[in-house]
Amino acid sequence: MAIKLPSLQRLTAEAARVARRFPLTLLCAFVLCGVGLYVIDLDNEAEQNVQWLFPALSAAGLGLSLTLALALTAERYHWRPGLRWGSLAGALGLLGLWFGLAPAQLDTTWGIRLALLLLALHLAVAAGPYVSELRGRADTPGFWRYNETLFLRILTAGLYSGVLFVGCSLALVAIDNLFDVKVNERLYAYLFVVLATVFNTWFFLAGVPRNFDELEQEAVYPKGLKLFTQFVLLPLVVLYLVILYAYLARIVGLWTLPKGWVSTLILALAVAGIFALLLIHPIRQAAENTWIRTFARWFYLALFPLLGLLAVAIGTRVGEYGVTEERYIVLVLAAWLFCMAIYFLVRRGQGIIWIPASLALVAFLAAVGPLSAFAVAQRSQRGQLREISLRYKLLKDGKLDDAGARVMTLPFAVRQRISSIFYFFAERNAAEQLQPLFTASLQLPDSLLAGTKWERVQWQSNRLFTISLLAWTDSEATDQAQEISASFAADATEYLKLGDGRYWWANVRFTQYTHDSTDKVVATASVREGSFRLRTQERGRTLLLEQLGANQRWQPRLSVFPGRVADSLARQHGHNQRTYLQLPATNLTLRATAGNIRFQLFMRELTRHQQQNTVGYDLEGQALLEIAQP
After folding, report:
1. What's the sign of the alpha-carbon dihedral 460, 465, 466, 472?
2. Hey, how many other C-beta atoms are within 10 angstroms of the C-beta on 310?
3. pLDDT, tens digit (0-9, with 9 covering 90-100), for 261-299
4. What's the CA dihedral at 357, 358, 361, 366 to 10 degrees?
5. How far is it, in rounded angstroms, from Cα 372 to Cα 256?
6. In what side-by-side order are the strands of the sheet with 597-611?
7. CB contact burial 525-553 (16+ within 10 A = b; e otherwise)
8. What is the pTM of this model?
9. Burial of 440 (0-12, 13-18, 19+ CB in 10 A)
C-alpha cells in the first residue's frame, strides 16, 4: 500500500489556517525566533549591553501560552469578536507591561517569577477552555481527551523538530566534509532556533483540537498509554513509596530530624502519582480496572504521613534560616497537595480539572502580589535580621551603621547568618529593602544601572558590609577554618594624575576572540586637557587613542599596533607555547607621538589567536599619556 504524502497546496492551506486561528501566538513565536537569531551573532560583552534581550525573550515566551489559552477559551465558549479581540489586546498590554518592568538581565527574583508564570499559563491552556466544569459534579470525556491531544501533540512536535534538526545538521556536516565547502558553525544554531520556535510552534498548533463537541464522544483508550502507566509509572510510584516509608520509619525509630532533601523526593512522588492517575482516569470505572480506584484511594491516604514528614523537614529549615523563595514554594506545594488529597478522597477521584486550575492559581499568586514568594521571603529575611540585631544589641537608634565596631565578638554562626541575609538581598537586587535599618544610603549608583548583574550584586553586598562594619563570613566555612581578611583594589577604570599633563592608565586590557569583531573601549580619562579614550580596532590589532571634540564626536589622535608586534613575535618564536614566552620588557613596549600628545603602552601579556584566516589579540598592560602644554 503506497504512502500518500500531503501535497504542497494542502500544507500551505493548513499553515494559513493555523495563522488565521492563532495569529498572536505565532507572532510570539516569530519574536522568539528573531531575538534568538540576533543573540547568536552577539559576543558576551555585546549581549550584556543590549538592555531589551531578556524582557523581549521572556515576554514572547509568556505570550505563547497566554494568547493560546485566550484563543482556545474564546473558541470553546464562542466569545463575540469584540470580547475575543479585546481580551487578546489586554493580553498584549500585559506583555508590554512585563517588557517594561523586567530587568535587562535575568536575576534570581525574575527568574523564579518567570518560571511560576510560565507554569500558570501552561496550566491555563490545559484548563481554560473547560473552566466551567469546575462547577460540575462529574468529569466529562472532553477535558481529558483535549489534554491528551495536547500532550501527544507536544511530544510529536518535539520529535519532528528533533529529527529535522539532526537530519539537517548531518546534511550540513556532509556538505562540509564531502564537498570541502566551509559551513559557518552558526548555521547549526540558526537551524536550532528556527525549528525550536517557529516550526515547533506552528506544527503543534496545527494539531490543537478544533471541534470541542467531538471530544465529548467516547473513544477507544490508547492501549500503549495504559501499558506505560501500569508497568512504568505506577511501579516507580510504588518504589518511591517504599523508600520514603522506610525512611519515615528510620526517622521515627531514631527520633531524628529529616534531611531537607527528602522534600524533593516527596514532591517527585506526588507529581508522578497524580500524573499516573490522570493518565488512566478515563478507564477507572471499567469492571476490569477496579485496582485503579483502589490504588488511587490508598495513594492519597499514603500521602498524608509523607506530607507531614515534608512539613517537618522544611519547617525545621524555615525555623532556623527563615523563608526563602524555594522554601515558600515547597510549603505552598505541600499545602496544595494536602488539599488535593482531601478533595479527591471526598469526591472519589472526580473533578480532575481542579488539578490544573487550582495549581495555576497557586502559581500565579506565588509570582505576584503581597503573598508572592518574593514578598514573603523578603519579609521573613528582614525579620530575621532585625531579630538577630536586637538579640545581640547591634542596633543604635534602630540602625545597623557601624554595628561591627560596637560589637566586635559576634558568634561565628551569627556572622554566617548575617552574611547570608545580606547576600540574599544583594543577589536579588533588593538591598534597598533593608534601608530602614541603615542611615547611609543603599541606593544603587546610576553608573551601575546599566552594568552587569555581577557588578550590581557585588556593589550591594560590599555596601552592606562596609556600612555595618560587620565581617563577611563564608556560609560553607567552619569556625576553625574561617579567616577574617580585608582586601582592597583600585578601580580598574581609573587613571592616576602624575602632574604636568601626565596620566597613568594602570590597567589596559582586552580580549578579542577571533569570532568577535566588535570594537571595545578599554580605558577612559576625563582630564583638564579634555576627554580621552582607548579603543580597539581590527579585533585588537590596533589600539586607537581618541579625544572628544567640540562637536561631541570622538576624534582619532594617534594609534599603536600591538597586533603587529604579536604577528612579528609569532613568526620569530612559533605558536602554541605551553606557557607565556618571557621576553625583555622593551620588546613589548610601544610608543607614539602626535602633535602635543605622547603615548606609551607597556604590555605585560600579549596573545595572538588565529582560526583559519581570522586573527584576534589579547592584551594586558599599562599606559602613559603625556599632554604637553601648547
Report:
1. negative
2. 27
3. 788 889 988 988 898 888 888 888 777 778 788 888 899
4. -140
5. 32
6. 495-499, 502-511, 614-627, 597-611, 589-594
7. beeebeebbbbbbebbbbbbbbbeeeeee
8. 0.76
9. middle
* Rounded Cα distance, 86 and 80, in Å: 10
Q: How do residues 552-591 score in pLDDT, each as one tens digit?
A: 899 999 999 999 999 888 888 776 555 678 888 888 999 9
Q: How many residues does the chain have?
A: 630
- φ and ψ at 182, to 5 degrees? -70, 115
Q: For residue 123, give Cα distances in angstroms to 54, 69, 298, 370, 603.
A: 23, 9, 26, 22, 58
Per-residue b/e over 349-358, b at no fewer than 16 CB within 10 Å? bbbbbbbbbb
Please list, in sequence order, all residues whose beta carbon lies within 8 angstroms of the beta carbon of residue 351, skipping any fewer than 6 positions away. Answer: 134, 136, 139, 343, 344
Contacts of 147 (CB under 8 A, 6+ apart): 126
Amino acid at 515: H
Q: Are 420 and 465 in contact (CB under 8 A)?
A: no
> Would you tell me how many other CB atoms lie within 10 Å of the CB of residue 297?
14
CA distances from 42 to 47, 61, 453, 463, 513 (A): 6, 21, 18, 32, 12
Residue 313, amino acid = A
Residue at 374: amino acid letter = F
Return the DSSP state at 181: P
Q: Order of strands, edge to edge, in the sheet holding 554-560?
A: 521-527, 530-537, 542-548, 554-560
User: Rounded to an integer, what distance in angstroms lies between the CA atom of residue 179 and that of residue 192?
Assistant: 23
Q: Which residues contact 244 (CB under 8 A, 6 or more apart)?
A: 262, 265, 266, 269, 306, 309
Under DSSP, is residue 494 helix (H, G, I), strand (E, B) or coil? coil
Q: Which three cell numbers stand for residue 159?
A: 520529535
